[in-house]
Amino acid sequence: MKTIFVIILLCVLMVGCTSKPKHNPIVDTINNSIGINDTLGLSLHPEYPVYSTRQKQVTFVLHNNSGTDISFGGYYNYTYEDEKGTWREAPMQLVAFDVETVLFQGNTHYYNAYLFRHAPGRYRFFLTIRRYNRKYTLMAEFQLQNNTIEFLGRHSDNRQKDTLPPEEEIVGQPIYNVVDQMPEFPGGMDKLLQFINGNMQYPAEARKKGIQGRVTVQFIVDEYGHITEPNIVRSVDPFLDKEALRIIKTLPQWKPGTLKGKAVKVKYTVPVTFRLDKTKEIPQTPQSMTQTLHPVPRNIPIGKNMNPDSLSMKTEYACYPPSTTEVRIFVTNHSRQKYTCGNDYSLAFYNGSKRQWEILSANPTIEDIGWALLPQYPPHQQTIKLHTSEIPNRPGKYRIYKTFCRDAKEVAYAEFEITSSG
After folding, report:
1. Of 195, 157, 389, 202, nearest in space to 294 by CA
2. Average pLDDT, the chain
3. Which of 67, 143, 312, 416 could form a disulfide with 188 if both were Cys (CB 3.0 to 4.6 A apart)?
4. How far, in Å, CA of 296 to CA of 45, rounded?
5. Pairing between strand 356-362 and 296-297?
C-alpha cells in the first residue's frame, strides 16, 4: 500500500542535569489516563506486542481509514505500571521531538517513539491526532521483557503484512483489530455520522437535565458486514448510553473487512455525540461534516536575507515537469549556531511579463511548532504541496520561502523551475 504523508520535522534533544539529589528521590507522577486504540476508522497498535528492555525505541502502526486526511504531531507520552499496579508517568528526557504529519485517507504510518524507561512491565503509549477540527487521543499498550528475541522473531514480517495478529481466539473465527481493508459503512465515514445524527432520539430526561457528551460504542463487524456485540466503552449517562446502543443496533449492513482477500471479523469503535442546541430541538449536523479547508495565499516573509554560507535551503531537483504536485526541500545548517523556525512557508511564481513575484496558495493548516536546526544534525526535510487545483502549474521559476530565527529573523528561499514537456 502506497503511503503518502507530509512530514515536517523538529528534533531538539535537551540533556538534563546529570547530578541527582541524594535525598528525597523523585517519584514519577501518577497518571491513570486511558485512550482508545481504534475509533472512527483510526487505529494505533504496537508493531510487536512485546519488546526487549534493551530497545531504544518502539514502533507503532497508525492506520487511517477514517474517510478523510488526519494530522498528528511528534509529541507523545507514555505511562508504566509499577509493582503495586499503579500507572505512572514515564520520564521523558527528550523535551521536544515534534513531527507534524498529514496522513492521507487509506494509508499507514509507522511511528517511532523513544524509550526512556527500560524496566520490564506494562506500558501505555499516547498519541493525539486531529480529524478536521477535533482531537482524539489514541492509546496503544505494549510490554517490555528481558528476553524477547523469540517474540520479535515470531512477528518479524509484520511490516510487510501491515496487519496485526487477532486480538483473541474464539470459536469459529478470530476477531481482528487491524486488517488489510477495514470495514466500511455504505457511503463512508461521513455517511455514518449522518446516519447517527439523523436517527438520534435525544432522551427527554437527559435533555431536561441538560446532559450532553460523547458516548463511545465498540462493536464487531462480522464477515458478512453485520453489526454484533455492541457495548459501551466510554459512558456519559445511562440515558445517553442506552440511546447510543439503540442507534448502533440499527446500523445497516457494512462492507466487511478483509485480510489477505478474505472477509473477517473486525472490532470497530465509533463515538456517538449528543449535543444540545439552544436554538433548535434537533441535533445539528456536526461541524466536521461541513467544514472544508481550502489552500490560502501566504505573503512572502519579511526579514534579512539569509547568508547561504550559514544556512542553505534547496529543492530536491532543479527542474520539475508541469504535472508536479509536491516538491521536497532540504535545509542544512552550515554555521556553528542554532537556528529555529516553524513549519510555515510561502510559495511564489515569477511572472515574466509583469516582472514580479506572485504569491501562490499554500497548505491551509500550519501548526505552531518549531524546528531546532543544529549543525551536527543531518539536513531537515519538508514536503511542499503545489495546489494545482487552485492555479495550474505554469512554466517558469518558483520560490519556496521560510523564516529562520537566531538573533533576528532571516529569510531563505529555495528556487526551482517548472519546464514544459517539449
Report:
1. 389
2. 76
3. 67
4. 35
5. antiparallel
C-alpha to C-alpha distance for 400 and 392, rounded to whole angstroms: 17
Extract the runs of DSSP E, i.e. beta strands, from 275-395.
Answer: 296-297, 304-305, 311-315, 319-320, 326-333, 339-342, 346-351, 356-362, 370-373, 380-385
Query: Worst-scoring range by mean pLDDT, 146-160, 181-195, 248-262, 326-340?
Result: 146-160
Tell me the DSSP string of 68-114. Answer: S-EEE-S--EEEEE-TTS-EEEPP----B--EEEEE-TT-EEEEEEE
Do 59 and 112 meet the contact criterion of CB atoms below 8 Å apart? yes
DSSP letter at 214 equals E
Residue 163, all three cell numbers? 496487519
What is the distance between the alpha carbons of residues 2 and 63, in angstroms, rounded to a whole number?
12
Please report which residue ranges of 168-317 form alpha helices under DSSP H: 189-198, 204-209, 238-249, 287-290
Once rounded to an integer, what is the mean pLDDT over residues 376-405? Answer: 86
Which residues 6+ apart lie within 8 Å of 272 measured at CB? 196, 200, 214, 215, 216, 217, 240, 243, 244, 247, 248
Helix H or strand E segment including 147: none
Residue 377: pLDDT band (50, 70, 90) is: low
Q: How confident is the model at residue 179 (pLDDT cuts 50, 70, 90)?
A: low
- Please state, as a whole number, how many other Cβ atoms lie within 10 Å of the Cβ of residue 201: 10
- How many other C-beta atoms can be found within 10 angstroms of the C-beta atom of residue 421? 7
Tell me the DSSP string of 328-343. Answer: EEEEEE-SSS-EEEES
For residue range 157-172, what is the model confidence (pLDDT) as tens digits? 333 333 334 443 334 5
pLDDT at 397: 95
Residue range 259-281, pLDDT digits in tens: 888 898 888 878 888 988 653 44
SS3 sequence of 122-145: EEEEEEEEEECCEEEEEEEEEEEE
State the pairing for strand pair 409-418/304-305. parallel
Residue 63 has which C-alpha cell?
492506520
- Joined grid coordinates for residue 244: 447510543
Amino acid identity, position 51: Y
Q: How far apart are CA 382 and CA 190, in angstroms?
A: 31
Could you give phi then psi for residue 158, rounded to 5 degrees? Answer: -60, -40
| CA geometry: angle 89, 92, 97, nearest 5 deg | 130
**Residue listed under C-alpha cell 528556487:** 415
The burial of 258, by beta-carbon neighbours within 10 Å (0-12 exposed, 13-18 middle, 19 or more buried), is given as middle
CA distance 38 to 209: 31
